[in-house]
Amino acid sequence: MITYGEVEKLHCMRAADQSVLSVYAYVPSERASMRELQAHAMDLVKAATERAPDMLHREDELLARRTLAERAGEWLGHTLGIFVSGQLSLLEVVPLRGSFPERAVLAARPHVRPLLAALGRYPDHRVVVMDHRHAWLLTVAGDRVEIVARTSAESLPSAGFGGWYFEQSHVLQRVTEVAPHFYQDAAAILDRQARHGSSQPLVVGGYVDSITQLLTLLPQAVLRDYAGSFAADPHSLTLAGARDLAAPVVSSWAERRECQLVQAVTTARPGVPATIGLEDCLTAVNAGTVGLLLIADEPLVPGFHCERCDVLSVGSNECCDWGAASWPVPDLLEEMAWRTLRDGGQVVSARTLPCTAAARMQ
Ligand SMILES: [Zn+2]
Which of 55, 86, 101, 112 is deepest in the core (most CB within 10 A)? Predict the structure, then answer.
């Protein structure tokens, strides 16, 4: 998996023409389908060249195909994003968990909208793992998981990080005694995090009775970010094991949130500043007033960007310069997403969105 910083880094690369090739191909779980995968990827690239004729560099296409052939076997059941540009000396391979819309795009920048969607579906999060006497606080970003702190029944209230202290071991250690008071310590540090503005989803794992005890003590501000729990024996849990058990919990939380946002924006009451449909969303994005932009997964929506007045539009002459400085962009939704993020808004790629785009204003 990739981090937001890495996606941003890809997005900031820019070629002099629309020759950067991005390919997203789903790698089936059965190896026997590899030949079909190659043929399918070629079809995707062909469709991209029809949308942007004369832009594809033959050597970039060959490199993308060779990379897919070499790397696909490592990533069965994943979607591979492959970004190639000889001009930018770029070759990047990004595996995404599960299935994402397949496509190839030729553009001045790497096409990263599916990467943003993947980040939304598996966001950075926190995991608390508990036995009857210890709690470990982990952070997960992409595939990286690390222990931020731990607390235990032996901690003094003033010790270390608010009663928590740093953990060096990568294997959670065995303890057996019961010490109920440390649940308050664990709840207190999570409360403190919430007060300091942390809003990452929170997963709690460990013994079922420990999870229940902690949940009864968590204040509302913490429960707002609570994504769910998993049962496990912390004594045999590794960091990677905790991350893998938390993954489906976080994915389900993200999917529920996605549905709630779609519902809230598309059925907004009169008086709530929201809009549905590409044209109105474009107007709002151009005005810099979008607080939350919902975009559909599938369609590529070609359009234009004016380099003089910065307006994004469906037609080539829809800005005050009458298109004198407008250049085609292969996907307006990608441009709208980055513009919204730049202006401080949120972007969610929503699988259940019944239209191309919808927005709630700031
Ligand atoms: Zn203009």
Answer: 112
